[in-house]
Amino acid sequence: MRDPNNQLHVIKNLKIAVSNIITQPPQPGAIRKLLNDVVSGSQPAEGLVANVITAGDYDLNISATTPWFESYRETFLQSMPASDHEFLNHYLACMLVASSSEAEPVEQFSKLSQEQHRIQHNSDYSYPKWFIPNTLKYYVLLHDVSAGDEQRAESIYEEMKQKYGTQGCYLLKINSRTSNRASDEQIPDPWSQYLQKNSIQNQESYEDGPCTITSNKNSDSNLLSLDGLDNEVKVDGLPNNFRAHPLQLDSSSDPSNSMDGPDHVKFASSLHETKKANTGIIHGACLTLTDHDRIRQFIQEFTFRGLLPHIEKTIRQLNDQLISRKGLSRSLFSATKKWFSGSKVPEKSINELKNTSGLLYPPEAPELQIRKMADLCFLVQHYDLAYSCYHTAKKDFLNDQAMLYAAGALEMAAVSAFLQPGAPRPYPAHYMDTAIQTYRDICKNMVLAERCVLLSAEILKSQSKYSEAAALLIRLTSEDSDLRSALLLEQAAHCFINMKSPMVRKYAFHMILAGHRFSKAGQKKHALRCYCQAMQVYKGKGWSLAEDHINFTIGRQSYTLRQLDNAVSAFRHILINESRQSAAQQGAFLREYLYVYKNVSQLSPDGPLPQLPLPYINSSATRVFFGHDRRPADGEKQAATHVSLDQEYDSESSQQWRELEEQVVAVVNRGVIPTNFYPTQYCLNSYSDNSRFPLAVVEEPITVEVAFRNPLKVPLLLTDLSLLWKFQRKDSSGKDNEEVKELVTGEPVMIGTEVISEFLINSEESKVARLKLFPHHIGELHIRGVVYNLGTIQGCMTVDGIGALPGCHTGKHSLSMSVRGRQDLEIQGPRLNNTKEEKTSIKYGPDRRLDPIITEEMPLLEVFFIHFPTGLLCGEIRKAYVEFVNVSKCPLTGLKVVSKRPEFFTFGGNTAALTPLSPSASENCSAYKTVVTDSTSVCTALVSSASSVDFGIGIGSQPEVIPVPLPDAVLLPGASVQLPMWLRGPDEEGVHEINFLFYYESVQKQPKIRHRILRHTAVICTSRSLNVRATVCRSNSLEDEEGRGGNMLVFVDVENTNTSEAGVKEFHIVQVSSSSKHWKLQKSVNLSENKDAKLASREKGKFCFKAVRCREKEVATQFSEKYIFADIIFGNEQIISSASPCADFFYRSLSSELKKPQAQPSVHAEKQSVEDAVRLIQKCSEVDLNIVVLWKAYVVEDSKQLILEGQHHVILHTIGKEAFSCPQKQEPPEMELLKFFRPENTTVPLRPSVEQLSNLIKTSLHYPESFNHPFHQKSLCLVPVTLLLSNCSKADVDVIVDLRHKTTSPEALEIHGSFTWLGQTQYKLQLKSQEIHSLQLKACFVHTGVYNLGTPRVFAKLSDQVTVFETSQQNSMPALIIINNV
User: Fold this and answer.
1) 316: helix, coil or strand?
2) Which of 500, 805, 1178, 1211 is the most exposed place for a label (fewest CB within 10 A)?
């Protein structure tokens, strides 16, 4: 078409909207409903792949398109009512249609024409609105080919052409075939894609040229269903004020986009309103493809011949009107004002015309003519001309303060500027801003403001000005429309994420706001979608309250939309995150979750049990215990502590138990631990070695301790809590019988399952549940998890841990609601770190504590201790009893007990059974075996002997492993045996933990379990009693029955160190016994007449005994284990020290003493001879004499007197060195300065010490104690003196005796006076092994007086040694002689 300047102008993609002439302006309510339906009807496609946007550290899945927004925008723009200040959707033309089957079609056209004129120009009709008074009328004759007479139609058409001209009329032929459903040729329904659901009779969008159809009241509705093929069907769902019109479309048709046909025609067709559903209706069934072409042809003819020339003519007219007035003034409008009013319009009249939104113009006002021209140019895509007209109009409207008109002009000027081809000028965004502000604030017209915003936002987005677009969209959100606000907020969010540097958090926040508004607008699906999109940003960033809010909303919306699984998972998230909500809020979340869950589970009652999120289970803290619970102590009977779940894990003690077990297994297997040995583990936890399948015994319970934690501030109640397991049964033939019992409802025959009916976990509490299984068959068991009902308590919340409100402690908690579900126990094994591959990668080993293998029956031992003390005095002996019970159905054998402290207890030696208790011992309840003695043998020793082999302490045996003397060595099923057990309080005071490990085997050897163990830890508190110290030294006297040397004196000091708290009045030393292979006590030396040796508190007693070597016949070979016991009694009862329990404890203490590491000097070959010599010299000063002090203590307790008894051991190794009964505390050395010195690497030759050398030779002088000599007769007094030299070693010794005085100190001379030895001054002798030699010497005195004869000095060396150990023997004790004168 040509513009006013006669320039050719091309129009592309023109669309035409056609609607019924009798229309009402759409009602706001109907528009709202329509928009709502459009949005809810448009959802994201199911299989749509979302865009992944990476922003910073976020990866977001975001739907690239928002079809619901596009549909909303289209529908919104099309449903805008026509208004007076703009002409864009006013009608331009009117089609008048009559059927060729009418009697008088031409007359009918005249009637229709008059009707149209009446409607347009009569003031009764405010609607529809017309563009210009001179509306184009186009006459259409409709001919039904299948029914009508074609000749007649042609002749009528000719008549019309005569009357209206060829440009103004048209003959449309349709329905070329009859509507025959069964016809072979199936042509697709041409209208189906255009018919719109719920669509209001749509007004045109801003670029449509409007036109109307008027129709004959008799016209066949079937004909009119076939109007245009390339059209967008617009539907009027409202009843009009006439009768039901044939052009009403049925309300169930559905809007869709126009097809790209030749002209992109928009056409409004109508169907009868009464046809409700378009599912069964086929439209255009009578049309052939030729008819389709005819309809297209008709629209084209109408547009090219009628509509566009009409518009071109109108634009020229308006333009001419304006240009003819242009020269009068610079502004077109001031010119038109003068033209119309002749003089300046007074202010008053304008003010009168003003309303809230400024001026109202009459329809023929010149200001409006320019707006009309601009709109027409805009409609035919002549944008530059349109812009200049809008721009001009804007100025004039602003001058007149006509704000509504000005805003319209600004808005369209901005759009025209944007649409101009080649973009000669930038988009004036401020025009739009002003327009929006004016519409919203001054005109209070939100619909127009919204249209502005929608247009402007699209324009800004197309220019990538996202932040401006977002600001604009957000500005228009308001309380008056939730749907609009939601859509705009969502678009704003998309703007934020599409920016050059995406604003992820702003996106998420606005998505949440949009979701909230969608929810208020009732658009549940869109709300859910928004929240889910936003969740991607908030998830896992530590914003827990925000996450809770989103998850809660998602859960709620999903539930409303019956997406139950999503609802469950959302609520699950709220509960499993560390919640910071208040208790009430958490309770609400939990109830909501349970409610949703219940609905889910009701939908599929037979489905698998769901995984529950609460309470938390700390899988790695799961402990598994194999065996029965420990029995409580029963009166005097106390069960062995064994292992239980109540004991804390202690790596040190578990290592000790392991060592004890290895020790006993090694003894059983002749000193070698078998390769397939693994320590027995009754309790498996995260510290134990769980890499192997644990072994459980059939018919013995398996207890699984599950650690629950309640993260919420609301108590949780678990009911019907039990374990889930799977069991593979093994037959005795070894075949596998796969019986998988997944649920607890398995046959009770295989595995019994314990159910805890109620288990309450208070708020934020960690609590363990112990669940039992009872295997009744052998096979492989796999414990999978726990199954329970999860619920919460109603009514009685515990407040601040004070406890429940009254009425809640009835045990049966009132459950508000509960769901059945499960949780699996999956335990991650330890990280592997052995091979290089394992070190470089992260690999975990297996953890099999929940997969026990059930094995055949084994014996089961229970041990009870009777009269077992908790407190003892050090060294006190007490008799208790141990009861062994076999509670299984198999006999047991090979019972042994092992302990690190064997000196603490004994079951008695092999002799104990042979030596019955003496009568007196039973009277006094003594633990010892006693014999009444006669009073004559007071100080002489009673000798007995015993072999240590009888007491289980043989050569090379393990003293810690003690076989338990069971009668017949077998304990039958159900049998019990009581054995005596003697205990001795340890020598150090304090609390002692003593571990016993009982080992036993089955009589039938089992392939999988070789042995079983039972542990017991005894705790004994000891308090101080006596402290015994002893020394031994050589006796100088030589009176021996055999005339052999070698007597010794033993000094024993006993101190009562008891503090009187224990209530001990006094200690009586009843007997001192010796035990040795070579020595024995012979008699007590210093005992006074008072036989009783009593020690009150803090008193000390001193005893002196004479010890002699045993006779040859008593002493067996060196390696025999026979010890000689000698008892010296201070009472009238002899305790037989060689019998149990005295000897047992003596041997035990001896063996523990021997176990202490002795420093062994290293031996080199060249020094061998020297070493041997030294060894021989050392041997002389060694003595293996052991002293046992037996005592009684009198204790007053509860005004009753008790007698306690006990024994202390002193082991004497070296002559002259003090030995103690209890280990001495080391005094910490005082701090001294550090000395730095260079170590000299000369090896010091091994030399025996002075004391050791001095014990090589024993000297003693025999002489008269006093000697009478008549000095007046003879001045020299000669006294014969015998010097006895006794060789204490087993080797030959060379001895030099030197008699010369070497005393230089004058005091010594003065005190003792001087005398002289006569004869040889030096003797050299060789003494054979243990030989005694006597030298006859003479001493010469010149005065009376007291003299010391002990001056001879003796030197000794081993004969076969080159080196002389020239060490003088220490002079023996002063040998005083008194010389008297007679």
Assistant:
1) helix
2) 500
Average pLDDT, the chain: 76
Contacts of 890 (CB under 8 A, 6+ apart): 857, 858, 859, 973, 1002, 1003, 1004
For the chain, the farthest-separated pair of C-alpha atoms sits apart, in whole angstroms, at 207
Query: Phi, psi (5° rounding) for residue 260?
Result: -75, 85
Distance between first and last Cα of the chain: 182
What does residue 1109 show for φ and ψ, rounded to 5 degrees? -70, 150
Is the confidence at residue 928, as pLDDT, over 80? no
Amino acid letter, residue 3: D
Q: Which residue has the higher pLDDT, 633 or 247?
A: 633
Could you tell me the pLDDT band of residue 328, with boundaries at 50, 70 and 90? very low
Instruction: Specify whether the CB–CB gap between 408 and 447 falls below 8 A.
Output: no
Q: Which of 361, 295, 249 is nearest to 142 (CA)?
A: 295
Residue 890, both tokens: 């198999």
CB-based burial, 469-487: b 16+ in 10 Å, e otherwise: bbebbbbbbeeebbbbbbb
Q: Which two tokens stand for residue 518?
A: 């969608």
Angle at 70 between CA 67 and CA 72, to 5 degrees: 110
Q: Which residues contact 1261 (CB under 8 A, 6 or more apart)?
A: 1281, 1282, 1283, 1284, 1349, 1350, 1352, 1372, 1375
Instruction: Provide the pLDDT for residue 956.
Output: 46
Most confident of 255-259, 1121-1125, 1312-1316: 1121-1125
Amino acid 178 reads T
Structure tokens at 758: 């109620």
Residues contacting residue 202 through CB under 8 Å, at least 6 positions apart? 17, 19, 75, 78, 79, 234, 235, 255, 268
CA–CA distance, 716 with 775 (Å, rounded to integer): 30
Residue 766, judged by CB atoms within 10 A of its CB (0-12, 13-18, 19+), counts as middle
- Residues 863 and 892: beta-carbon distance below 8 Å: no
- Residue 1040 DSSP class: -
Identity of residue 610 = P
Q: Would you call 582 exposed, middle or buried from its count of C-beta atoms within 10 A (0-12, 13-18, 19+)?
A: exposed
CB 283 within 8 A of CB 191: yes
Cis peptide before 128 (omega within 30 of 0): yes
Q: Which residues of 328-360 are buried (b: 16+ CB within 10 A; e: fewer)?
A: eeeebbbbbbbeeeeeeeeeeeeeeeeeebbbe
pLDDT at position 162 over 60: yes
Q: Note the residue count of the chain.
A: 1382
Q: Mean pLDDT throughout 1008-1028?
A: 89
Q: How confident is the model at residue 103 (pLDDT cuts 50, 70, 90)?
A: confident
Closest CA to 58 of 512, 569, 506: 506
What single-letter amino acid sits at 1098?
Answer: R
Question: Is the pTM above the cut of 0.70?
Answer: no
Token pair for 393? 């109009």
pLDDT of residue 197: 45
Cβ atoms within 10 A of the Cβ of 564, count? 18
* Residue 412 binned pLDDT confidence (cut-offs 50, 70, 90): very high
1243-1277 per-position pLDDT tens digit: 445 566 666 666 777 777 888 888 899 988 888 89
- The residue type of 245 is H
Q: Which residues pair with 61 in a beta bridge?
A: 52
Question: For residues 1263 and 1348, is the Cβ–Cβ distance under 8 A?
Answer: no
Which tokens in the block code for residue 1182?
């060694």
3-state percent helix, strand, coil for the chain, nearest multiple of 5 = 30, 25, 45
pLDDT digits (tens, 9 = 90+) for 598-614: 887 777 777 788 888 88
Closest CA to 660 of 1020, 1017, 1157: 1017
